[in-house]
Amino acid sequence: SPDYRNSVALPRYVRVNTLKTTVEEVIEHFQSEGYVLEEPIKILNNLSPKTIRKDFHLSDLLVLPPNTDLHNHILYLSGKIILQDKASCFPSYICSPSINSYVIDACAAPGNKTSHLSAVMKNTGKIWAFDLDKKRLRLLEKLTQKAGCKNIEAIHKSFLDVNPLDERYSKVEYILVDPSCSGSGIVNQLDGLVDSSETDQSDLSQKSQERLKNLSEFQIKIILHAFKFPSAKKVVYSTCSIHSQENEQVIKGVLQQNYNFILANRNDVIPTWDRRGISSEFVDDDESADKLIRTLPEDFTNGFFVACFIRKSSYMESAA
Ligand code: SAM
């Protein structure tokens, strides 16, 4: 696979923070600055300067041309818009916790998905946001406060050490699992954390293979831990990796080791999104890959992966 980093300019995606404003208000604001509203489209290349459009797939997302710098924009500074890549908006959108529900964000910092969950829940119910990294968790507190979220409790703790049978979490129905990954899908990676050789699977050094194996084992473990929460009915897993070891192979591992959760049907996992999981990873199983989401820079987003597990019984109920 080609090395995408430093080679693609993604559109400037703007997630409207519906806790503070509306999509219409934000569009009007940009129009007052001379932006022209255009129709939603799937193929987002050659976006003209000073154009704005609703995203084709996500209702709270707007699309502006690449390299539009909004870091000093009043709507950003006031927390009314959040600058977040399209693919990383998928997990909270797919999770879609209902109003007044109880939610865990297992690996939450710096919190863009947490504030998105909070907005989907309209600031009702409760989100427990765990993270191992204290500094990143402080950032989560700052960012979610700026976004006007009032239903989040940030906890500095490994999610693996959270007791699923603790009474506090007895009503948790939705769990988001966005754990550490190789980051190999991130375009224009600035922090240099990822070894560039990792984007080509055939070239993976032994060290990288070892690292992927460790990540993959950790990812399986953390999903299986989420399944232990007695009221959990939906568990959404995501990575910003393009490696099947952290994506399809993690899903296979999880499905082999538990009998209570299955993959949600494509209809509940952004059915209009065309790029699905890699089917050759699932031998004798024609259905699973289609239930998964992959994104690549060709889709005008970072490389990303999302899977949505649901408890078997809740699937049976909804099918009945
Ligand atoms: N969900 C975040 C967002 O959208 O802003 C990004 C999460 S980042 C991909 C992964 C996070 O997992 C890191 O902040 C890392 O500190 C955290 N992490 C790693 N191991 C963990 C564990 N055992 N329990 C909780 N958090 C963990």
Automatic annotation (TrEMBL):
S-adenosyl-L-methionine binds at residues 107-113, 131, 178. Residues 2-312 form the SAM-dependent MTase RsmB/NOP-type domain. The active site is at 240 (nucleophile). GO terms for biological process: rRNA base methylation. One of its GO terms (molecular function) is RNA methyltransferase activity. It comes from the Eukaryota. Belongs to the class I-like SAM-binding methyltransferase superfamily. RsmB/NOP family. This is S-adenosyl-L-methionine-dependent methyltransferase. It comes from Rhizophagus irregularis.
